[in-house]
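Recap slide: Replication initiator A domain-containing protein, sequence and predicted structure.
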Amino acid sequence: FYRIPKALFQEPRFQSLSTDAKTLYGILLDRMSLSVKNGWLDEQNRVFIIFTIEDVKRTLCCADNKATKLLRELEKFGLIERKRRGLGKPNLVYVKNFSAESSKSIFQNRDFHDSGGFKNASQDPSKSRCNKTKENDTEMSETDPFYSEEADGMCKRTQLEEYFSQSLEIDLLLRLCPDDEDTIYQIVDLLVDTCATNRKLLRIAGDDKPAEVVRSRFMKLNADHIRFVLKCLAENRSPIRNMKQYLLASLYNAPTTMQLSYQN
């Protein structure tokens, strides 16, 4: 079961925080316990978790837009902090403590860092980042099926991140489409995950296609294709039940669809 601090329900300043966001905070707190156990520390000795939008969707059985909204809610109320690690890499999430007289007892037996997250001073941070326990491996394997474990294929992923950063002109896209920042990073994550996978077949638009064919097509995408996908997404009026599959199909078909749209 998950524990949700009662201050989130009793403190006036949290009254406008949605119940789903409060539930998500409890889930993130629970995940923090695992990170503490496995010694996941950043360079500032702060404990972090990796909990992507896909993780939120799967855990709460919600759509992409709602998952994004819930994470932003928690950020707005100062309950979490997200740190980007570079293109293709999932964000680091710091679960923040909140100072309130009624909530001190909740955290008084935990070593919370004032700047965000738990503090584990007894462990060398340089060693803790490489500490991969069996429980941690199990936890990571239950996340996005495209994701390889962080210890495997890192060099390949790094190369893919750098490649897509340049080929898609991500910095330019972010300046031109600031409102689509989350979607742009989600697209990059998806491209990296897909191209790094060891699967032989990938499902695109309901069909199983050879992974090499999909990879080859994705590696030929450019910034114009991404802007076209973002435009189609903004103009879509039908409910999207599976954002990942929608984006995969849109990205795969973007070169052909974009050319046809210009011809018409």
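The two ends are 55 Å apart (CA to CA).
Residues 122 and 230 are 46 Å apart (CA to CA).
(End of recap.)
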